[in-house]
Amino acid sequence: MKQILQHLNTGQMEIAEVPCPQVGRGQVLIQTRASLISAGTERMLVEFSKANLIQKARQQPEKVKQVLDKIRADGVLPTLEAVFRKLDQPLPLGYCNAGVVLEVGQGVTDLQPGDRVISNGNHAEIICVPRNLVAKVPENVTDEEASFVVLSSIALQGIRLLEPCLGEKVMVFGMGLIGLVTVQLLRASGCDVLGVDLNPQRLRLAETFGARVVDVSGGASPTEAANAWTAEHGADGVVITACAKTDEIVHQAAESCRKRGRIVLVGVVGLNLRRSDFYEKELTFQVSCSYGPGRYDEAYEQKGQDYPYGLARWTEGRNFEAVLGAMSSGTLRVEALVTHRYALDEAIKAYETIESDPSALGVVLQYPHEVVRSTRVAISQGRSTGSGQAVVGVIGAGNFAVSTLLPCLSRTGARLKYIAGRNNSASLVHAARKFRFENAVTDYRQILDDGDVNAVFVVTGHNSHASLAGEALDAGKHVFVEKPLAISMAQLVDIGDVVKQHPDRQLMVGFNRRFSAHTQRIKGHLAGRAGPICMTMTVNAGEIPATHWTQDPQEGGGRIIGEGCHFIDLLSWLTGSPIETVSAARVGEGPAVRDDKMSILLTFADGSVGTVNYFANGCKRYPKESLEVFYDGRIVRLENFRVTRTYGFGRDRTFKTRRQDKGHMTEIQAFVDRVASGGGPLIPYEELANVTQASIAAVQAAREQKVVRLGETAGSSRLERKGQPAHSCVEVGCAAV
């Protein structure tokens, strides 16, 4: 299928061939019939992509500060790589879509194939959208009209914040698409409207919708016009739908308002406000957020958790329905807003029209009625596989995969046959091209069913690691799964059972830090130790919002299970001894995230002890990771995987690497080599299970304020708490994790 992509680094636009997305739980698969190009938002994105780096930085000063902080913490080269990697990602364009339902995911019961719907999907022949961002289209509303619904909902939400009353006088700055829709909806609410713009054609259109107008292209003053219109009282309210960098628009809006008037910003304008404008009149100023309550809330948009009707009457989904109702009744008329129509294959020409033609307003893309639903796109020519070569399929193309794993994997000499993802077809194809995969697919089962593939990398969400690793092992593949191996004891039991059935298959978890040149050197120092060791691992993890998927116990497992396992594994590997007991304490008992501010104490079978201090409440400018190892009158200190210092060795020494070395390249190369040449597991399964158990136990120990003893058999998934039998712990503690 085809999709429109914008490349932010080069400014080029592309009509790309991408695989059809796969519908998931709570989602709707839609074949597009028409989509509207947003002349404001999308033109800004196109213009931003064509700017040079300095111009891009000037447009986003808040991002520059983030970059400077990252340079202080991680160094110049890693930061530049991160910036260029971000700009290298293609951006799917579009958010105003009308089409027909092809398929619904599990849990969607009120839609069925064949239903006509609107959504905020991209410009693509087939899209996959969460149910709460989809609304059914009435029979008397055309596909072309329906493509205006999402954009019109932006206008509607601005009006809802304004709370206009019958008979009020409201000004609208900016007669673009959103402004002209705003005029109509305000008129339908019983308001008198004064439209302000510098485009005479659009002002004439506003007049046909019942507005008075002010043409500022000739120097007319909006404030004088407002005073004349309101008998010197000033407007009751102002809606700003303009898109401009100047601060003058907000100033004019304030000057045009009556005392205690209201201003709502829907568009994008300069916001260097003058206090006197608002102080003297006690004006109210509010910024509208997109199409309504629920926007940017993952629980609402992605997980389908609707807001209570009585408490949030107008969510974004219900705003969609309200706009469709207005279109169906004839209250909102958008056919006059359409100035250009293009077939999807002419999309680049459509965007050129928006940039160059001042008369362009509503530009609609039209789509073919027949589309091939292929879940595979060939990227490069396949090559024959030699004996003793790793043939790889990767499941997952998220941030970690693209930034870290795939660059390493592409240098191993393995044959990269597939990369798979479910929904983000644009990122999937981009990754396939960049790292020279032969195929991009949205159905991972194609990887498992291909007899050529002998190694599968699982780089998906944490809650799917164990199940996908198990499927791949059952399909006869060697498996590299990113940490964590499992986020619950039940998952660990399941994957343990699968591992026992396939003793000849590699199962590797991405515990890369034990492969770093720094930790390998530390391990060498410890080889001849006379007694137990004491270790302190400090992790300045940085704050992540409580709503982030990694914080969700069901999706990400929380940060200790999801990331803290790295450091538990490192300490376990350094001792060469299994973990016996886990205790932990965390900060705070309120409703906010607590599991990312925790101290974990580990004891090992050889008598060693280790502490992991995982703190998310520190400063970003401080190094992220540091380790101290104490033993036999000596100390080894690791500083952010860039510097290792030794003390007590007769002569203190320092080992440095030019950049952080967390062991990713060495780890992935070792796995690929082991797949090609054979041999035992890089990390014995008993160690993988022991570390995973300990990570889960740490959360339990902190929650219950108990010392948790791990079961003797690493694969048995038993956690034993001091003073209680193992079965009691499973029932009370483990099931709650």
Can you lay out the helices and strands and say which pair or pack?
Elements: E1 2-7, E2 13-17, E3 27-37, H1 41-50, H2 53-59, H3 61-74, H4 76-88, E4 90-92, E5 97-104, E6 116-119, E7 126-130, E8 134-136, H5 143-146, H6 149-162, E9 169-173, H7 177-188, E10 192-197, H8 200-208, E11 212-215, H9 222-229, E12 235-240, H10 248-256, E13 257-265, H11 275-279, E14 284-287, H12 298-301, H13 316-329, E15 338-343, H14 347-356, E16 362-366, E17 376-378, E18 391-395, H15 399-409, E19 415-420, H16 425-434, E20 439-441, H17 445-449, E21 455-458, H18 465-474, E22 478-481, H19 489-501, E23 507-509, H20 517-526, E24 534-540, H21 559-575, E25 579-586, E26 597-604, E27 609-615, E28 625-631, E29 634-639, E30 643-647, E31 653-656, H22 664-677, H23 685-704, E32 708-710, E33 719-721, H24 726-732
Parallel strand pairs: 9-10, 9-12, 10-11, 12-13, 13-14, 15-16, 18-19, 18-21, 19-20, 21-22, 22-23, 24-27
Antiparallel strand pairs: 1-2, 1-4, 3-5, 3-7, 3-16, 5-6, 6-8, 17-20, 24-28, 25-26, 25-32, 26-27, 28-29, 29-30, 30-31, 32-33
A few lines on this structure:
By secondary structure, the chain is an alpha/beta fold.
